[in-house]
């Protein structure tokens, strides 16, 4: 009797000893009390991103008439709708590529300035202005009666005003102006992340400025440029205000977000609008995946020279 | 492309000046380096030694002065036109290139034929004993191996001058000793001149043919390791060369040169006059390992601490007038014990000035 109870007590003791407490096991996976701080962020993402996305996805399969794919079939059979993909890409891709390419030399130069902060501030101001203000400003500045055209005509460079707004050019200029600061800041941070001693070492080994850029800076920058391209592209792809204000929203610059807007607020077809939004997301995702896949062809490690 | 082969005779720095805004980092530094020499630029941080090296490499422009390689003035040339090899403190290996491509980079920039590059890279890999690591990326190597790659990359272009900026400071103590002899071996093998920046006097003493001690942007003394170890020209150089006891003293007799007697720490001590003194005030410099307990020693001190250093104890104590003294003792001493200390008069150096 006493024997058995002793043995039982020992057994329970041993089993509690052997089993690691759950807190310790969680801690081994880096989960502890502080991990709970992530909860608000997770709720935020679930409530404001995941849920609306899934809601939209489901909605896009519930058209007003026809089977569950009817909206998608309608989009891809109507050139007035599917052409918007091309119209948007025709704006977003060149604008993004120009911004990324131009940001490289500017960032290379700014990196060596003493008054970097001042210049950075000036370049960042367009971000704080927002696209609508930029569009209004450009309408005045580039319009037929704007300063630019009047000055050029006064100087006799042109005889009739250049058509720079309410067309493709206007939207393009606005996209470059409003997108550049963001692209530039990202490029600048990637470039300053490259250890300056690498370029110095290359110089002492006989590399000219051009060779240093080609063999050292550019290969180490490709990763950053790919990410930069993706972020800038996604921003540009959802262009709406400048396409409406500075473009020809019924013609050349009828971008995909305009189609979605019209479906939702002119035809009150929420399901169709959701479908267009889903297609828009899919096109963006395709471009981003292609860009990120492309960077895998290059070196992907740290851009420092020494031991991490 | 390099401006000269290894067959230069002399590199001359004439009155180099460099200022950063209000700060003068180099104030009139002059030096002459012969082919095959190993020169150490030694000094505390902020003394201008790295600035001098960067000016030599062309990474910094001079505010004044000139640099000559035999009859060619080179201080206006860009770094890529000078063709000096440089080894950086953080190695500065190109992280996206294999070891082979890192080492071959300089030759590729010179547009040498492929076979020649391949052959020279293999030679350089063999010199730094990294034969098996050629296809790895720098990130896959240990610190010591990365350091060897950096050296191979600098010497493979056969530069007239190899510049090294504290190349061992990121390595652990054991590796540092190993790489020290490696660096000297490679220097002897390739026969170009090496200028080596360090703040470690032991490193400078063991590596260099001549040591240049710098302080506040000026050259304080140039000499062989033996000269700097045994006869530092100034009290501040002595302090930097390991003379830990740098003490104010009063001259008792023999106002001239040679062996004189001074009063230090309340006791009379004989020493060698190095500098002329205007008054009877002086500074005495003694290495801790030259100050030892002796039964008839003139300086009495109370032991304050004793660290075991293997063969000896490294001790600190206080003389009767409160002066702090550092000395070595072969026998264990205890805290609070009274010891009598003596020093060989040829190892007691007397300088001008009051401190």
TrEMBL record, chain A:
One GO BP annotation of this record: transmembrane transport
Q: What InterPro entries does this protein's entry cite?
A: MetI-like, MetI-like_sf
Q: Where in the cell?
A: Cell membrane
Q: Which residues form the ABC transmembrane type-1 domain?
A: 85-291
The portions of this protein that span the membrane are 33-54, 85-106, 118-135, 172-193, 213-231, 270-293
Q: How does it sit in the membrane?
A: Multi-pass membrane protein
Family label:
Belongs to the binding-protein-dependent transport system permease family. CysTW subfamily.
The name this protein carries in UniProt is: Sugar ABC transporter permease
TrEMBL record, chain B:
Instruction: Provide the membrane topology annotation.
Output: Peripheral membrane protein
| SMART domains, sorted | AAA
Q: Which GO terms describe its molecular function?
A: ABC-type transporter activity; ATP binding; ATP hydrolysis activity
The UniProt record lists the ABC transporter domain at: 11-241
This protein's GO CC annotations: ATP-binding cassette (ABC) transporter complex
Where, subcellularly, is it found?
Cell inner membrane
Do you know which Gene3D superfamilies this protein is assigned to? 2.40.50.100, P-loop containing nucleotide triphosphate hydrolases
Query: Where does this chain mainly localize?
Result: membrane
- At the top level, the lineage of the source is Bacteria
Alphabetical list of Pfam families matching this protein: ABC_tran, TOBE_2
Which family, according to UniProt?
A: Belongs to the ABC transporter superfamily.
Q: What does this protein do?
A: Involved in beta-(1-->2)glucan export. Transmembrane domains (TMD) form a pore in the inner membrane and the ATP-binding domain (NBD) is responsible for energy generation.
Its recorded name reads ABC transporter ATP-binding protein
Please give the organism. Answer: Bradyrhizobium zhengyangense
């Amino acid at each position: 009797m006493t024997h058995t109870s002793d043995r039982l007590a020992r057994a329970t003791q041993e089993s509690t000893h052997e089993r690691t407490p759950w807190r310790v096991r969680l801690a081994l996976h880096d989960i502890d009390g502080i991990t709970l701080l992530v909860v608000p962020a997770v709720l935020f993402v679930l409530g404001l991103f995941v849920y609306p996305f899934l809601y939209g996805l489901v909605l896009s399969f519930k058209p007003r008439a026809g089977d569950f794919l009817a909206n998608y079939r309608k989009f891809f059979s109507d050139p007035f709708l599917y052409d918007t993909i091309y119209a948007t890409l025709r704006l977003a891709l060149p604008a993004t590529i120009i911004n990324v390419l131009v940001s490289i030399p500017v960032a290379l130069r700014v990196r060596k300035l003493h008054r970097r902060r001042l210049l950075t501030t000036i370049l960042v101001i367009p971000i704080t202005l927002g696209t609508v203000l930029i569009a209004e400003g450009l309408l005045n500045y580039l319009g037929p009666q704007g300063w630019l055209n009047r000055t050029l005509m006064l100087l006799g460079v042109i005889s009739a005003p250049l058509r720079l707004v309410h067309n493709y050019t206007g939207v393009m200029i606005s996209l470059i102006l409003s997108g550049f600061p963001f692209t530039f800041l990202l490029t600048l941070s990637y470039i300053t992340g490259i250890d300056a001693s690498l370029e110095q070492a290359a110089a002492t080994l006989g590399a000219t400025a051009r060779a240093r850029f080609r063999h050292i800076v550019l290969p180490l920058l490709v990763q950053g440029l790919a990410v930069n391209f993706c972020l800038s592209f996604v921003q540009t792809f959802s262009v709406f205000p400048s396409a409406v204000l500075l473009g020809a929203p019924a013609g050349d610059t009828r971008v995909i977000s305009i189609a979605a807007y019209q479906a939702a607020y002119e035809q009150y077809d929420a399901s169709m609008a959701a479908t267009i939004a889903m297609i828009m997301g899919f096109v963006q995702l395709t471009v981003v995946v292609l860009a990120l896949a492309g960077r895998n062809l290059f070196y992907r490690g740290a851009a420092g020279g020494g031991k991490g | 492309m390099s401006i000269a082969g290894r067959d230069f005779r002399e590199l001359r720095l004439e009155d180099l000046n460099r200022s950063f805004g209000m700060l003068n980092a180099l104030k009139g530094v002059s030096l002459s380096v012969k082919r095959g020499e190993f020169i150490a630029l030694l000094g505390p941080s902020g003394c201008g030694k790295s600035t001098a090296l960067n000016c030599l490499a062309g990474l910094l422009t001079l505010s004044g002065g000139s640099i000559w390689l035999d009859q060619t003035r080179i201080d206006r040339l860009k770094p890529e036109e000078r063709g000096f090899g440089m080894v950086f403190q953080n190695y500065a290996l190109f992280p996206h290139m294999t070891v082979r491509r890192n080492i071959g980079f300089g030759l590729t920039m010179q547009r040498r034929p492929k076979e020649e590059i391949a052959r020279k890279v293999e030679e350089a890999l063999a010199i730094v004993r990294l034969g098996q690591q050629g296809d790895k990326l720098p990130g896959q190597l240990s610190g010591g191996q990365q350091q060897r790659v950096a050296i191979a990359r600098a010497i493979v272009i056969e530069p007239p001058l190899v510049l090294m900026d504290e190349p061992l400071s990121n390595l652990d103590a054991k590796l540092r000793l190993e790489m020290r002899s490696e660096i000297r071996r490679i220097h002897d093998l390739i026969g170009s001149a090496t200028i080596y920046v360090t703040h470690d006097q032991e490193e400078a003493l063991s590596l260099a043919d001549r040591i240049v001690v710098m302080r506040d942007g000026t050259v304080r003394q140039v000499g062989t390791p033996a000269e700097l170890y045994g006869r530092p020209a100034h009290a501040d150089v002595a302090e930097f060369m390991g003379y830990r006891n740098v003490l104010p003293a009063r001259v008792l007799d023999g106002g001239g040169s040679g062996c004189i007697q001074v009063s230090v720490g309340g006791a009379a001590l004989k020493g060698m006059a190095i500098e002329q003194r205007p008054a009877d005030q002086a500074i005495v410099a003694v290495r801790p390992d030259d100050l030892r307990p002796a039964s008839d020693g003139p300086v009495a001190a109370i032991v304050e601490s004793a660290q075991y250093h293997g063969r000896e104890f490294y001790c600190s104590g206080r003389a009767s007038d409160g002066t702090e003294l550092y000395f070595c003792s072969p026998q264990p001493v205890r805290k609070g014990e009274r010891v009598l200390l003596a020093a060989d008069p040829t190892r007691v150096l007397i300088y001008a000035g009051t401190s």
